[in-house]
Write a structure and sequence with these properties.
Blueprint: H1 5-19, H2 28-34, E1 37-42, E2 48-55, E3 58-64, H3 69-85, H4 87-92, E4 95-98, H5 107-110, H6 115-128, H7 131-141, H8 148-158, H9 162-169
Parallel strand pairs: 1-3
Antiparallel strand pairs: 2-3, 2-4
Helix pairs in contact: 1-6, 3-6, 8-9
Organism: Rhodopseudomonas palustris (strain BisA53)
InterPro entries: IrrE_HExxH (IPR010359), Rad_response_metalloprotease (IPR052345)
Domain IrrE N-terminal-like: 34-169
């Protein structure tokens, strides 16, 4: 399977349109609830960010309660991406995300090149940092994409980590 990040971003844009969202921060918990997916927070191993699974026909997202709230938001959006984009894969097993970009506990996924992970990251990135809102924020603020202080300002506005914002601005999500 080859990753299709543009399809994942379009799925996120569809959700943003459905909710009529035009501001920041994007209410990820409300979106998850409206999609009839249960969101649960629990203390997990530090290298475990989250998981997506289905139990008794109900979609469930588990997020590491010990991580920073902004990282939790990205993890929740990433796991929602798995529910939206990869329902068939979730039906077959519990998908556990170790670290920031790992879906399965294997050598390929630990390299961050697994197609499902690439798509879930693209989905989460577009959902929490929509291209149009990000472009407007950059234009309005006059911030430079390479300016570390500017990245922190944008990350705070969108309630994501500075790391996630850096990846987004670099075009890696």
């Amino acid at each position: 399977m080859t990753a299709n990040p543009e399809m994942a971003r379009e799925a996120a844009r569809t959700i943003l349109r459905e909710f009529g969202l035009k501001g920041t921060p994007v209410p990820i918990e409300r979106i998850i609830k409206a999609r009839n997916v249960v969101l649960q927070y629990a203390p997990l191993e530090d290298d475990l960010s989250g998981m997506a699974f289905i139990k008794d026909g109900i979609g469930i997202i588990g997020v590491n309660a010990l991580h920073h709230p902004n990282r939790q938001r990205f993890t929740a959006a990433h796991e929602l991406g798995h529910h939206v984009l990869h329902a068939a894969a979730i039906q077959k097993a519990v998908h556990v995300d170790k670290g920031f970009r790992v879906l399965l506990r294997d050598d390929v996924s630990s390299q961050g090149i697994d197609p499902l992970e690439i798509e879930a990251n693209a989905f989460a990135s577009e959902l929490l940092m929509p291209r149009e809102l990000l472009a407007s924020a950059l234009d309005a603020s006059g911030l430079e994409m390479e300016d570390e202080a500017g990245i922190e300002v944008l990350a705070k506005k969108f309630r994501v980590s500075a790391s996630a914002m850096r990846f987004r601005l670099a075009g890696n999500f």
